[in-house]
Specification:
The structure holds 2 protein chains of 2 kinds.
Chain A (H helix, E strand, L loop, with lengths): L13 E10 L7 E11 L4 E5 L6 H8 L7 E6 L2 E2 L7 H7 E4 L12 H11 L4 H14 L16 H13 L5 E5 L7 H18 L2 E6 L2 H7 L2 E6 L2 E6 L1 H5 L2 H6 L6 H11 L11 H20 L1
Chain B lengths: L15 H4 L2 H17 L3 H18 L3 H25 L5 E5 L2 E4 H26 L4 H11 L10 H31 L9 H7 L1 H24 L18 H23 L1
Antiparallel strand pairs in B: 1-2
Helix pairs in contact in B: 2-5, 2-6, 2-10, 3-5, 3-10, 4-5, 6-7, 7-9
Classes of the chains: A alpha/beta, B mainly alpha.
Chain lengths: 300, 268
């Protein structure tokens, strides 16, 4: 289990195969949350899972790490059914880390360091390895060591979020699923948390799935985007491949990033910018380049 | 999971019993309980049991649902029947084997007790819990207990506390569910180890649950103060309670039932 920092291990791919999930089976309140869904998350990249409210995103997250058991169908990690041995489902929680929506409510320990160590501790790791992982996870989530001995309840909302994410990261799962990790944070907090997750993925090379409905964030931080419509795959591809289908996105209740819309407006106004721009950084570069060209043109 | 837990649940509907005034229902239930306890012979018990089913019919709640709700008290009923069969003495000895003696009176008494418990639970659940929303119930209680204000008993505060508690039961259940899942995802193990280990495993659930409950209480208090809540003094209501003809009709019917039972007791 002990690995040296920076060593990339085998990345796992995870797949839902014809999964149907119904809530409250056998009661009058029975309701299908997912109906015959098949999705495949590629190994070693960040996939942004997007869909509007009620499209089954959070249910998928809980199916991926065995918290929920599919009513029908299978969840496969590298082709092996996670429910093959139901008694060993707890092991799956160690292989597939899940950070719930608004995870700050899960904190309970006396100190930040102890709380981050809760997961690794449950895995039965030795103290030295736990300390190393706590330190590492704190680094990725931007928690400074001076916070380690504080009570998690003294922290601000954004810091609590980081502790909660670090608590799952420290388990060093092969696959990490995050449900709206940046929801309700200010732009700087979003950038730091999502940037930290990306840095973590780049260093570990593991498989990450981020659930979000922010096109802006996912255009920047995800390698591939997966768009869901009522629990079914509507689009899958790079941000360019997904965002060029504007009408389809609109139909499922999502829209292109605002910066793309702005670029299109500029284009309509006769300014020669590329409409395939999805991040503010790219837009900045494009506009600067345009100004430079104009300046040079003016001088000539 | 936890969300399947049912607690004194209200079943929305539009039947006669749903429409009754909650204050009247509280009186009705008292009369009904008195009726059940005044029955003392087979005929009046039969009438009492029949009346319980008439109430079920009036409430339009599926009988299956009510029988399902009876499951938890099933053990109690069996237990009461058992005690009555073996411990009641009388004139007609039926079976005598070693120290066990069963009398005809014992069996009769056991049946009476079961019918009593059965009609008590069916009657009160159909009259009150199934057909009265928790809010209407506490509202009714506040009005019925209103006279106690003279004795400086904070009736309004009590009913407000009850309303809030009832309101937050589903929220807390949902919250617990969420926390259990989050800790499970971090590898928490609730189902192995000895008693002390299992109790310790609950800490990661109880701490966040209490923290969020206090937080919620705080927020609710602020929200109430922001809307100028200052207790029951001079407070008016959005929905005024009115007694209708139907309330008196049902009251009359129940009083007739009570009188009938008393007459039956005298005859038999």
């Amino acid at each position: 289990m002990a690995e040296t920092t920076g060593e990339k291990k085998h990345a796992a791919e995870i797949e839902l195969s014809h999964v149907t999930y119904r809530y409250s089976v056998g009661t009058p309140f029975e309701k299908a949350a997912l109906q015959d869904v098949s999705l495949k998350f590629e190994a070693g990249i960040i996939t942004g899972l997007m869909g509007h409210t009620g499209s089954g995103k959070s249910t998928i997250a809980q199916l991926l790490n065995g918290i929920l058991r599919p009513t029908e169908g299978q969840v496969l990690i590298d082709g092996r059914d996670i429910w093959a041995e139901p008694k060993k489902i707890r092991e799956i929680c160690f292989r597939v880390g899940l950070v719930f929506q608004y995870p700050e409510y899960q904190l309970f320990e006396e100190t930040v360091a102890k709380d981050i160590a809760y997961g690794p501790h449950n895995m039965g790791l030795d103290e030295k390895e736990i300390a190393r992982r706590v330190e590492e996870a704190a680094r990725f989530t931007g928690l400074t060591p001076d916070l380690f001995e504080k009570s998690p309840f003294e922290l601000s909302g954004g810091q609590k979020r980081r502790v909660a994410i670090a608590g799952v990261m420290a388990m060093d799962p092969e696959i990490l699923v995050l449900d709206e990790p940046a929801a309700g944070l200010d732009p700087r907090g979003r950038k730091e948390i999502l940037g930290g997750i990306r840095a973590y993925q780049r260093e570990k090379g593991n498989t990450i799935i981020i659930i979000s409905h922010s096109m802006e964030d996912m255009a920047v931080y995800a390698d591939k985007l997966m768009v869901l419509d009522h629990g079914h795959l509507s689009r899958y591809g790079t941000s360019h491949e997904v965002f060029c289908h504007a009408e389809e996105l609109k139909a499922v209740g999502l829209s292109r990033p605002q910066i793309t819309k702005l670029m299109m407006e500029l284009q309509k106004a006769g300014i020669p910018v590329d409409s395939g721009i999805y991040t503010v950084d790219d837009a900045y570069e494009a506009v600067v380049r345009l100004f430079r060209e104009k300046k040079q043109g003016g001088m000539a | 999971m936890l969300r399947d837990v049912t607690l004194g649940q209200y079943f929305p509907g539009n039947s006669l019993l749903h429409k009754l005034d909650p204050r009247m229902k509280i009186f009705l239930i008292i009369i009904y309980i008195v009726t059940i306890f005044s029955a003392n012979n087979p005929v009046s018990f039969a009438v009492v049991l029949a009346s319980a089913f008439v109430l079920v019919f009036l409430s339009k709640i599926p009988l299956k649902l009510i029988l399902k709700g009876l499951k938890p008290v099933f053990v109690i009923m069996i237990f009461t029947a058992f005690i009555n069969i073996f411990w009641t003495t009388g004139d007609h000895l039926l079976i005598s084997w070693k120290f066990i003696k069963i009398y005809a009176e014992g069996i009769q008494y056991a049946i009476f007790m079961v019918v009593r418990v059965l009609s008590l639970i069916i009657g009160s659940s159909v009259l009150l819990t199934y057909t009265t929303s928790p809010i209407a119930l506490t509202d009714g209680l506040e009005r019925v207990l209103g006279p106690l204000k003279v004795l400086h008993i904070p009736v309004h505060e009590f009913s407000m506390m009850m309303t809030i508690a009832l309101r937050f039961i589903p929220t807390l259940i949902e919250e617990t569910d969420k926390i259990i899942n989050a800790q499970k995802a971090r590898g928490a193990d609730f189902s192995s180890g000895n008693l002390i280990e299992r109790a310790k495993a609950l800490v990661p659930i109880m701490v966040p649950l209490f923290v969020s409950a206090f937080h919620r209480a705080d927020e609710l208090a602020i929200a109430m103060e922001c809307r100028c809540y200052h207790g029951g003094e001079g407070r008016t209501r959005m929905t005024q309670l009115h007694l209708h003809t139907r309330d008196f009709v049902v009251l009359g019917a129940l009083l007739i039932l009570l009188a009938g039972i008393i007459v039956l007791n005298i005859i038999f």
